[in-house]
Write a structure and sequence with these properties.
- Its EC number is 3.1.30.1.
- Belongs to the nuclease type I family.
- This protein is mainly alpha-helical.
- It has one domain: P1 Nuclease (Orthogonal Bundle).
- Helix 3 crosses helix 12, helix 6 runs antiparallel to helix 7 and helix 8 crosses helix 12.
- The longest helix has 30 residues.
- It starts with 9 loop residues before the first helix and ends with a helix.
- Bound molecules: zinc ion.
- Zinc ion (ZN) binds next to helix 4 and helix 7.
- Zinc ion binds next to helix 4 and helix 7.
Length: 289
Protein backbone atom coordinates (compact mmCIF):
# COMPACT_ATOMS: atom_id res chain seq x y z
CA UNK A 1 0.00 0.00 0.00
CA UNK A 2 1.26 3.43 -0.81
CA UNK A 3 0.04 6.83 0.15
CA UNK A 4 0.13 9.82 -2.14
CA UNK A 5 3.65 11.14 -2.49
CA UNK A 6 4.13 14.86 -2.63
CA UNK A 7 7.61 16.14 -3.23
CA UNK A 8 8.55 19.09 -1.06
CA UNK A 9 11.82 20.83 -0.55
CA UNK A 10 13.56 20.79 2.84
CA UNK A 11 13.29 24.60 2.69
CA UNK A 12 9.51 24.33 2.63
CA UNK A 13 9.57 21.84 5.50
CA UNK A 14 11.63 24.36 7.44
CA UNK A 15 9.19 27.14 6.67
CA UNK A 16 6.27 25.09 7.96
CA UNK A 17 8.30 24.14 10.98
CA UNK A 18 9.01 27.75 11.87
CA UNK A 19 5.62 29.30 11.20
CA UNK A 20 3.23 26.60 12.32
CA UNK A 21 1.38 26.76 15.60
CA UNK A 22 1.29 23.78 17.92
CA UNK A 23 -1.56 21.62 16.69
CA UNK A 24 -2.40 18.79 18.98
CA UNK A 25 -2.85 15.36 17.52
CA UNK A 26 -1.01 12.45 19.02
CA UNK A 27 1.29 13.09 21.88
CA UNK A 28 1.85 16.82 22.13
CA UNK A 29 5.20 18.26 21.11
CA UNK A 30 6.87 17.17 24.35
CA UNK A 31 5.66 13.58 24.01
CA UNK A 32 6.93 13.23 20.45
CA UNK A 33 10.16 15.02 21.32
CA UNK A 34 10.64 12.54 24.17
CA UNK A 35 10.13 9.49 21.93
CA UNK A 36 12.65 10.72 19.34
CA UNK A 37 15.19 11.96 21.90
CA UNK A 38 15.05 8.59 23.67
CA UNK A 39 15.49 6.76 20.36
CA UNK A 40 18.38 8.63 18.75
CA UNK A 41 21.16 7.70 21.23
CA UNK A 42 20.16 4.02 20.86
CA UNK A 43 20.82 3.95 17.11
CA UNK A 44 23.50 1.73 15.62
CA UNK A 45 26.24 3.47 13.66
CA UNK A 46 24.59 2.55 10.34
CA UNK A 47 21.17 3.79 11.47
CA UNK A 48 22.60 6.99 12.97
CA UNK A 49 24.39 7.73 9.69
CA UNK A 50 21.25 7.09 7.64
CA UNK A 51 19.17 9.35 9.90
CA UNK A 52 21.79 12.08 9.65
CA UNK A 53 21.84 11.69 5.88
CA UNK A 54 18.04 11.86 5.55
CA UNK A 55 17.37 14.73 7.97
CA UNK A 56 17.40 18.22 6.43
CA UNK A 57 20.59 20.13 7.30
CA UNK A 58 18.72 22.70 9.41
CA UNK A 59 17.66 19.91 11.82
CA UNK A 60 21.35 19.60 12.75
CA UNK A 61 21.07 15.83 13.20
CA UNK A 62 18.34 16.24 15.84
CA UNK A 63 15.47 13.90 14.94
CA UNK A 64 13.49 15.26 17.89
CA UNK A 65 13.30 18.71 16.34
CA UNK A 66 11.14 17.30 13.52
CA UNK A 67 9.28 14.59 15.41
CA UNK A 68 6.03 16.63 15.36
CA UNK A 69 6.40 17.59 11.69
CA UNK A 70 3.67 15.10 10.69
CA UNK A 71 1.16 16.93 12.92
CA UNK A 72 2.09 20.31 11.51
CA UNK A 73 1.58 19.31 7.85
CA UNK A 74 -1.66 17.41 8.46
CA UNK A 75 -3.98 20.20 7.40
CA UNK A 76 -2.08 20.84 4.20
CA UNK A 77 -2.15 17.11 3.49
CA UNK A 78 -5.59 15.95 4.58
CA UNK A 79 -4.89 12.45 3.22
CA UNK A 80 -2.43 11.98 6.09
CA UNK A 81 -4.93 12.73 8.92
CA UNK A 82 -6.32 9.17 9.33
CA UNK A 83 -2.77 7.82 9.52
CA UNK A 84 -2.29 9.09 13.08
CA UNK A 85 -4.70 6.71 14.84
CA UNK A 86 -7.04 3.69 14.71
CA UNK A 87 -10.70 3.61 15.66
CA UNK A 88 -11.79 0.33 17.22
CA UNK A 89 -15.32 -0.88 18.07
CA UNK A 90 -16.79 0.70 21.21
CA UNK A 91 -16.19 -1.15 24.48
CA UNK A 92 -14.64 -4.26 22.90
CA UNK A 93 -11.11 -3.32 24.02
CA UNK A 94 -9.60 -5.29 21.14
CA UNK A 95 -7.87 -4.39 17.91
CA UNK A 96 -7.77 -6.39 14.67
CA UNK A 97 -5.95 -5.16 11.58
CA UNK A 98 -8.41 -6.42 8.99
CA UNK A 99 -11.40 -5.15 10.94
CA UNK A 100 -10.09 -1.81 12.18
CA UNK A 101 -7.32 -0.48 9.93
CA UNK A 102 -9.29 1.73 7.56
CA UNK A 103 -10.22 5.38 7.25
CA UNK A 104 -13.68 6.93 7.65
CA UNK A 105 -14.46 6.07 4.00
CA UNK A 106 -13.61 2.43 4.65
CA UNK A 107 -10.40 2.49 2.61
CA UNK A 108 -8.28 -0.26 4.09
CA UNK A 109 -4.71 0.09 5.38
CA UNK A 110 -5.27 3.78 6.13
CA UNK A 111 -4.55 3.84 9.89
CA UNK A 112 -1.45 4.27 12.03
CA UNK A 113 -0.49 0.58 11.74
CA UNK A 114 -0.80 0.65 7.94
CA UNK A 115 1.24 3.86 7.87
CA UNK A 116 4.04 2.38 9.99
CA UNK A 117 4.18 -0.64 7.66
CA UNK A 118 4.14 1.59 4.58
CA UNK A 119 6.91 3.97 5.64
CA UNK A 120 9.04 1.07 6.92
CA UNK A 121 8.78 -0.53 3.47
CA UNK A 122 9.78 2.76 1.84
CA UNK A 123 12.79 3.23 4.14
CA UNK A 124 13.99 -0.31 3.41
CA UNK A 125 14.85 0.95 -0.09
CA UNK A 126 17.48 3.31 1.39
CA UNK A 127 20.72 2.96 -0.55
CA UNK A 128 19.03 1.11 -3.41
CA UNK A 129 18.01 2.29 -6.86
CA UNK A 130 14.31 1.91 -6.05
CA UNK A 131 14.67 4.57 -3.33
CA UNK A 132 14.32 7.31 -5.92
CA UNK A 133 10.56 6.76 -6.17
CA UNK A 134 10.10 7.86 -2.55
CA UNK A 135 10.84 10.89 -0.44
CA UNK A 136 12.74 9.07 2.29
CA UNK A 137 13.16 12.20 4.40
CA UNK A 138 9.41 12.38 4.75
CA UNK A 139 9.20 8.62 5.27
CA UNK A 140 11.61 8.94 8.22
CA UNK A 141 9.66 11.84 9.73
CA UNK A 142 6.32 10.09 9.33
CA UNK A 143 7.60 6.80 10.74
CA UNK A 144 9.24 8.49 13.75
CA UNK A 145 6.03 10.37 14.49
CA UNK A 146 3.66 7.44 14.03
CA UNK A 147 5.78 5.21 16.27
CA UNK A 148 5.00 7.77 18.97
CA UNK A 149 1.30 8.05 18.13
CA UNK A 150 0.66 4.31 18.22
CA UNK A 151 1.93 4.22 21.81
CA UNK A 152 -0.55 6.90 22.96
CA UNK A 153 -3.33 4.64 24.31
CA UNK A 154 -6.17 6.81 23.03
CA UNK A 155 -4.80 6.70 19.49
CA UNK A 156 -6.26 3.21 19.49
CA UNK A 157 -9.57 4.22 21.04
CA UNK A 158 -13.27 3.82 20.55
CA UNK A 159 -14.95 4.94 17.34
CA UNK A 160 -17.95 6.82 18.74
CA UNK A 161 -15.92 9.12 21.03
CA UNK A 162 -13.07 9.46 18.52
CA UNK A 163 -10.44 8.21 20.94
CA UNK A 164 -11.72 10.37 23.80
CA UNK A 165 -11.90 13.55 21.71
CA UNK A 166 -15.61 14.04 22.41
CA UNK A 167 -15.41 13.31 26.17
CA UNK A 168 -15.37 16.66 28.00
CA UNK A 169 -13.55 16.54 31.33
CA UNK A 170 -11.92 18.91 33.80
CA UNK A 171 -8.18 18.55 34.31
CA UNK A 172 -8.00 19.88 37.84
CA UNK A 173 -9.64 23.32 37.39
CA UNK A 174 -9.30 23.60 33.62
CA UNK A 175 -11.59 22.35 30.88
CA UNK A 176 -10.15 19.68 28.65
CA UNK A 177 -11.14 16.58 26.71
CA UNK A 178 -9.96 13.09 27.60
CA UNK A 179 -7.84 12.73 24.46
CA UNK A 180 -6.01 15.97 25.24
CA UNK A 181 -5.41 14.78 28.82
CA UNK A 182 -3.36 11.91 27.37
CA UNK A 183 -1.70 13.92 24.61
CA UNK A 184 -0.65 16.81 26.85
CA UNK A 185 -2.14 17.38 30.30
CA UNK A 186 -0.57 14.41 32.12
CA UNK A 187 2.85 15.18 30.62
CA UNK A 188 2.56 18.92 31.36
CA UNK A 189 1.52 18.30 34.98
CA UNK A 190 4.35 15.78 35.44
CA UNK A 191 6.85 18.32 34.10
CA UNK A 192 5.51 21.07 36.36
CA UNK A 193 5.56 18.85 39.41
CA UNK A 194 8.72 16.79 38.97
CA UNK A 195 10.86 18.36 36.27
CA UNK A 196 10.98 22.15 36.80
CA UNK A 197 8.69 22.40 33.75
CA UNK A 198 11.62 21.26 31.65
CA UNK A 199 11.08 18.52 29.06
CA UNK A 200 14.76 17.55 29.10
CA UNK A 201 14.39 16.59 32.78
CA UNK A 202 11.38 14.45 31.89
CA UNK A 203 13.41 12.76 29.15
CA UNK A 204 16.28 12.15 31.59
CA UNK A 205 13.88 10.62 34.14
CA UNK A 206 12.43 8.21 31.57
CA UNK A 207 15.95 7.45 30.31
CA UNK A 208 16.89 6.47 33.87
CA UNK A 209 13.86 4.14 34.01
CA UNK A 210 15.00 2.50 30.77
CA UNK A 211 18.58 2.11 31.98
CA UNK A 212 17.77 0.74 35.45
CA UNK A 213 18.07 -3.01 35.29
CA UNK A 214 14.86 -4.93 35.92
CA UNK A 215 12.70 -1.84 35.83
CA UNK A 216 11.44 -2.13 32.25
CA UNK A 217 11.57 -5.20 30.01
CA UNK A 218 13.55 -3.34 27.37
CA UNK A 219 14.93 -6.42 25.59
CA UNK A 220 11.41 -7.77 25.11
CA UNK A 221 10.19 -4.45 23.72
CA UNK A 222 12.92 -4.37 21.10
CA UNK A 223 11.86 -7.56 19.35
CA UNK A 224 8.79 -9.09 17.77
CA UNK A 225 7.62 -12.66 18.23
CA UNK A 226 7.86 -13.07 14.46
CA UNK A 227 10.06 -11.09 12.09
CA UNK A 228 11.90 -7.85 12.68
CA UNK A 229 10.61 -4.68 14.30
CA UNK A 230 8.39 -2.81 13.92
CA UNK A 231 5.48 -5.01 15.04
CA UNK A 232 2.73 -2.35 15.11
CA UNK A 233 -0.11 -4.85 15.62
CA UNK A 234 1.41 -5.61 19.04
CA UNK A 235 1.76 -1.92 19.92
CA UNK A 236 -1.85 -1.22 18.87
CA UNK A 237 -3.19 -4.10 20.95
CA UNK A 238 -1.26 -2.82 23.98
CA UNK A 239 -2.68 0.66 23.43
CA UNK A 240 -6.36 -0.32 23.31
CA UNK A 241 -5.82 -2.43 26.45
CA UNK A 242 -4.23 0.56 28.22
CA UNK A 243 -7.01 2.81 26.92
CA UNK A 244 -9.62 0.54 28.55
CA UNK A 245 -7.70 -0.23 31.75
CA UNK A 246 -6.42 3.28 32.43
CA UNK A 247 -7.52 6.09 30.08
CA UNK A 248 -11.28 5.47 29.89
CA UNK A 249 -11.55 3.73 33.27
CA UNK A 250 -13.77 5.62 35.71
CA UNK A 251 -14.17 8.57 33.34
CA UNK A 252 -17.54 9.91 32.28
CA UNK A 253 -18.67 13.14 30.65
CA UNK A 254 -17.64 16.13 32.84
CA UNK A 255 -15.48 14.00 35.15
CA UNK A 256 -13.10 16.04 37.28
CA UNK A 257 -9.68 14.41 36.91
CA UNK A 258 -7.20 15.28 39.65
CA UNK A 259 -4.49 13.59 41.74
CA UNK A 260 -6.16 10.16 42.05
CA UNK A 261 -6.27 9.94 38.24
CA UNK A 262 -2.95 11.69 37.56
CA UNK A 263 -0.90 9.66 40.04
CA UNK A 264 -2.14 6.31 38.77
CA UNK A 265 -1.86 7.19 35.06
CA UNK A 266 1.48 9.00 34.91
CA UNK A 267 3.46 5.69 35.16
CA UNK A 268 1.54 4.44 32.10
CA UNK A 269 2.44 7.58 30.15
CA UNK A 270 6.13 7.17 31.08
CA UNK A 271 5.99 3.49 30.10
CA UNK A 272 4.41 4.19 26.71
CA UNK A 273 6.88 7.00 25.93
CA UNK A 274 9.77 4.69 26.91
CA UNK A 275 8.42 1.88 24.73
CA UNK A 276 7.95 4.30 21.84
CA UNK A 277 11.56 5.47 22.07
CA UNK A 278 13.08 2.00 22.47
CA UNK A 279 11.01 0.57 19.63
CA UNK A 280 11.64 3.48 17.26
CA UNK A 281 15.37 2.88 17.73
CA UNK A 282 15.00 -0.88 17.28
CA UNK A 283 12.98 -0.30 14.12
CA UNK A 284 15.48 2.12 12.59
CA UNK A 285 18.35 -0.22 13.54
CA UNK A 286 16.51 -3.08 11.84
CA UNK A 287 15.76 -1.03 8.71
CA UNK A 288 19.23 0.44 8.24
CA UNK A 289 21.18 -2.38 9.92
ZN1 LIG B 1 0.08 12.40 15.32
Amino acid sequence: MEFPKIQISPLLVGFWFLCSVALVHGWGNDGHLTVCRLAQPRLSEAAANAVKDLLPAYAEDDLGSLCSWADRVKFRRPWSSPLHYIDTPDDLCTYQYTRDCKDADGIKDRCVVGAINNYTTQLLTYGQESASQYNLTEALLFLSHFMGDIHQPLHVGFTSDRGGNTIDVHWYTRKSVLHHVWDNNIIDTAEERYDDSDVTELIDAIQTNITLKGNYRVKTWEGCTTGNPPCPDVYATESIKAACNFAYKGVTEESVLEDPYFLTRVPIVYLRLAQGGVRLAATLNSIFG
